[in-house]
Structures are given as structure tokens and as C-alpha cells.
Amino acid sequence: MRTLRLIELRLGRDQIGVTCGIDDLQFHFTIWYDDVDLLAVDRGLMERLAFHAALFQLNSVASLRPEAIELGRYAHHATPRFVELWTTVFRRVWAQWRWEHDLPAYDGPRFADAAGASSPGPVHTAAGPVELLAFCGGGKDSLVAAKLLERAGLLFSTLGYSHSIYGDAASQHALLERVAAGTARARRERQWIFDDFLDSPVVSLRPELGVRSLLAAETPASVFAALPLAVARGHRGLVVAHERSANAANLVWEATGEGVNHQWGKSWEAERLLDLYVRTELCADIRYFSVLQPIHDEVIFELLARDAELAPLTHSCNVKKPWCGACAKCVYVWLQMSAHLPASIVEATFGADLGERPVNERWLRELLGLAAHTPFECVGSAPEARLALALTARRRPLGPRLARLAAEVGPIDVASIAAPLIGVDDAHGMPSHVADKVMPQLRAAAAAARARLGQP
User: Fold this and answer.
1) Do 58 and 64 form a contact (C-beta atoms < 8 A)?
2) C-alpha dihedral (166, 70, 95, 291), degrees to nearest 10
3) Confidence band (pLDDT; 50, 70, 90) for 1?
4) How far, in Å, CA of 438 to CA of 442, rounded?
5) Confidence at 118, pLDDT banded by 50, 70, 90
6) Taking 90 as the threshold, does the pLDDT of residue 48 lie above it?
7) What is the mean pLDDT of residues 261-287?
8) What is d(CA 116, CA 276) in angstroms, rounded to the nearest whole number?
9) Among residues 310, 274, 317, 319, which one has the least CA distance to residue 293?
10) Who's near 47: CB < 8 A, 6+ residues apart?
11) What is the pLDDT of residues 365-403, one digit of tens each?
């Protein structure tokens, strides 16, 4: 039986270290924190938080199709609710991986020795001087979210994190700092993740494992990795910038009937699940929520246009930062910027017409709903991309390639396609004092978008 083993979990003053193994292989993960003393916090709570951070980092190793997980001397941390949460996240996030590998019956590994009979319950922690910790991934959503908090007069720090899979850590943090420094944050927080599994050649060197790709539950993992810092600083809210389009599935898997959603970890379902777990199992005073969950990209770009001069400082590419210009993420953001921001801003950000690059035809077809499914990337839905295409065509002549694809899409009824994308949903996880200051901004932006599009 192939078993994923948690070999060692180390808690240091400013780092959490993890070693795990599967068959004859070993992998290591390290999470570093800037200017913090984790050992000064309640030891029992910090060990529980470190366990959660470790297990959600090493869930990527479950891409190697283990049948079981062994926790050894750390098994007492695995309560029934933890097992349920981890299993649910794995099932939902790895739907894409299971679809790609044609494994409809694979439910993931079982916990062989989970020994936590019941949860010790959530702990109350001391409040610090800065209420909110705003995750800053460097993209337009992070910028818009931080500006919402800024204009709401809410005190926040920014959290930028680097991951070894994205290259040099110093370069990543320099890019993140370009965006975060343009906000009225109270403090800069930094986190480094070094991961020798996702960086490894295991797929090519071990074909007998039957694995063609690796996957990670990056968003759930980032939540649990941030909790030790949040507790040490006394933050009361983990703020993310996940929009409504993250709720849309890329496809429906005929074999199982389930929606396969690359962005499930950012979805409203995941947000509610993680927030409830954190509050009721770990830290009673900490909330996890998105300030963009009620809106789609049409409203987000209405907000971004108010800080258009900062847009060239953003980056979202997962291939080569800041922008590779040849992936679905780059093409989608370029198309939306072309639809909503001045041409000089688009040029300063990308420096080229990405719609005319031959390599991008695949991504454009997928984005516009002309392929079997939308891209497995953090991008908007096909209606959002089609609306952006129509709005771009209103502003400037399309290049030959984009014009040909637009003809294939056919006439776009802007009023009809925009209607469901320019509202503000009442469903959100924001605490009332945050929602009272953020929701009016979202509604005002939605009203401005409706007016711009000639909608009632």
C-alpha cells in the first residue's frame, strides 16, 4: 500500500519545517515568517496551527496517488473535523487532477492513524494594533481589495508570500512590494515557502507512479500558513480578494456529474468552509473572508480604473513573472484591461497586443467558450471574456486574429451578457463592520458600470 507519511514537523521561532515521505522518496517544506516569534505564543495552539499548515502544504504530495496517510506521533492533532475538512478540500480541488488522469473513483488517501478523538475547541487570542491582514498576491484583485479597505478607513497590513515554484524569492517579493506599497497599509508582512516537491522531477523520473501532473491546494494552504502569523500579531481578519467568477466550474465531468473547478479553493463554498473551521476549531476571534466575493470582473475593473496608474505595477502570471504574455492568465487580464483601461496603461503593462500572438489562440478560444472547457487557470468565465471582447471592439479596431475569433463567437448582446455580471450579490462573509464600509463601495461601482454600459 502506497502511504504518505508525515515524518517530522518542526516549529521554530520564525519557521515551520515539514518532512514527509512516500515509498522511498522524501520531500521537505519550510514556511518562513518575517520578524516574528512563534515560540512566544501559546505552545499548544501554535503546535496545532503548525500541524494544519504542514498537512495542507503536503497535500500536494497526494498527487502521487497514495492510498493512506500516516501521521505517526502527530496523529493526535487529526480530529474527525480535521479529517473531514482535509478530505473535502482534497476531493474538491483535485477534481481537475482526477479528470485529467481519468480517475473518477479515486477519492484520495484515507487517514490510517487519525487519533484525535475530539477537538479541544477554539482558543481566544489577544487582539493586536492592526485588525486586518490583507493577502497581497500582486494582481489587480489584491490591489482593488486593498484600496477598498483603504477607502473604508479600515486598518490593515499586507501579506506577501513567495513560493519556490515561482522562482527567486527576492524577485517575487520585490514585485509584490510594488503593489502593496501603493496602498495605505499599516505594516508589511512577508512569508517565504520553500517546497522541494513541486520543484522536483518526480513526474518524469518515476513514470511507474502513473502521474502526469502535480497539483496543490494553494489557497487553503495559504490560509493555514498565515494563521500562525495572524495569531502572533493579533489580527482579527484574514482578507482575500476572491471574486464571484471563482464559483464557476470549468466543466461538468460526465463520469461523476461533478463540476470541475480549478478555482474551487477560492470559491464561496470554500470560503465558508474554511472560515467556519477556523472560528470553531482553532481561533475563535479570527475571520477569513473575501471583500470581492459579491462581484464579477466587470465591477472589479470599474474599481481598478479609479487607480489605473497603479495597474502596470500588478502581476498575475504563474509562468514567468510579471507577465509571460503566452498563458491564459496573461491573455485574460490583457483582454480585460484592453476593455476597461487607457491604451497607454495596457501598453505599459504588457508591451504587446497579446491577442495577435499565435501561441495565444488556444487560450482565447478557451476563454471565449469556443473550446471544450475554459482554461484551468484563475480567470473569469466565458461570458466575462466575451463581454470584454465586445467592449474592446467598441474602443479600437481588433487585430486580424481577434477579429476572426470574434466572428466565430458571433454577435454579442452586451446588455444581455452584462446584466448578471454588474450586480452585487448579498452573499458574503465579511464581518458587519467591514461590510458596512465595503458594500456601499461595491454598489456604487456596480451602478457606475451599469451607467457606462447603458444599463438601467
Assistant:
1) no
2) -60
3) confident
4) 6
5) confident
6) yes
7) 97
8) 19
9) 274
10) 11, 77
11) 999 999 999 999 999 999 999 999 999 999 999 999 999
Instruction: Please say if the pLDDT value at position 326 is more than 90.
Output: yes
d(CA 126, CA 423): 38
DSSP 370: -
Q: Tell me the CA distances in angstroms from 444 to 70, 150, 424, 455, one per residue in order.
A: 51, 16, 10, 14
Quote the pLDDT of residue 351. 94
When pLDDT is cut at 50, 70 and 90, the band that residue 116 belongs to is: confident
Instruction: Report whether 119 contacts 81 (CB < 8 A).
Output: yes
Helix, strand, coil share of the chain (percent; to 5): 50, 15, 35
Phi/psi at 54 (5° precision) = -65, -50
Dist. CA 58–CA 197, nearest whole Å:
9
DSSP 399-435: PHHHHHHHHHH----HHHHHGGGS---S-----HHHH
Cα–Cα separations (whole angstroms), residue 204 to 18, 23, 59, 210, 318: 24, 16, 20, 10, 21
Residue whose grid cell is 519556490? 164
73 φ/ψ angles, rounded to the nearest 5 degrees: -70, -5
Length of the chain: 456
State how far the Cα of 199 lies from the Cα of 183, in Å rounded to an integer.
Answer: 33
Three-class secondary structure of residue 252 per DSSP: strand
N-terminal to C-terminal alpha carbon distance within the chain:
61
